[in-house]
Amino acid sequence: MKFTIAVFGAPHAPGTRRALRFAQAALAGGHEIVRVFLYREAVQTASANLVSPQDETDMGRAWQRFVADNQIDAVVCIAAALRRGVLDTGEAQRYQRPAANLAAGWALSGLGQLHEAAQQCDRLVCFGDQ
Amino acid sequence: MARSMLVISRQAPWSGLAAREALDIALAGGAFELPLALLLLDDGVFQLSAGQRPESLEQKDLSANLKALPLFGIETIHVARDSLVQRGLDIDSLGHPIELIEESRLGDFIARFDHVVTL
């Protein structure tokens, strides 16, 4: 089955961890992930500046590794990301901000990417918020 | 055939970005002419309240975005009748064309869509 995974909650919200475990289980079960899309507070999971205490799971790093290891199409909503201070180098330059912090593997793009992925998948599975 | 999506918006317009960001999903899908509907449920029905003064909260008027829905092919806003009634909103004084959905029909309505996003 083809899944699109949308994540809405903050990096340490339970749904963000569940989304990662779901994504891992989907691949392990032989399914395909069309795209992972971060929206709302979840955009902060794509910040390269998250720092977790040593004895806690580094959710940003865990997602980043999953995306890299499995060559996941990983998109962060650009409007939601700008509002919450997650910028790539292009946006940091455009808005004259001192730093870019989008972690490697993630791409900023529009909500159209969520809709496009929803058209290509069998199931859109959402994690976080309501 | 295009896959349909229902966006369920459950938050009041001034409780943060949830209502705006739910509406943005609907507008973005409408721009691609996808089969898409918006359902206001629970506190989401407050988005229909007339006479809001967002400037007093240093916010932009979200109802202007709601009014733009028909331009994006979303002609009616679906609204859960019980949510309206429970919050004392007068059905006749809402500023938007709406289609009321009875509590007993909500499940069937939601099940009609291929995808559901709830914010």
Give a description of the structure.
The complex is a heterodimer of chains A (130) and B (119). Chain A is globular. Chain A has helices at residues 14-28, 59-69, 78-83, 89-94, 112-120; strands at 2-7, 32-38, 74-77, 107-109, 123-127. Chain A has 130 residues and is an alpha/beta fold. Chain A starts with a strand and ends with a strand. Helix content of chain A is 36%, strand content 19%. The model of chain A has no long low-confidence stretch (mean pLDDT 96). Chain B has one domain (5-50, 59-118): Hypothetical Protein Ychn, Chain: A, CATH 3.40.1260. Chain B is built from four helices and five strands. Chain A binds chain B through residues 6, 8, 39-40, 79-80, 83, 110-112, 114-116, 118-119, 123-124, 126, 129-130, and chain B through 2-3, 5, 8, 10, 17-18, 21, 24-25, 28-29, 31-32, 34, 114-119.
Classify the secondary structure makeup of chain B into a structural class: alpha/beta
Which word captures the global form of chain A? globular
The major pleated sheet of chain B works out as: 5 strands, parallel
Query: Which CATH-level-2 architecture of chain A?
Result: 3-Layer(aba) Sandwich
Per CATH, what is the topology of chain A? Hypothetical Protein Ychn, Chain: A
> What is the number of independent domains of chain B?
1
Please report the first level of CATH classification, the CATH class of chain B.
Alpha Beta
Number of domains of chain A: 1
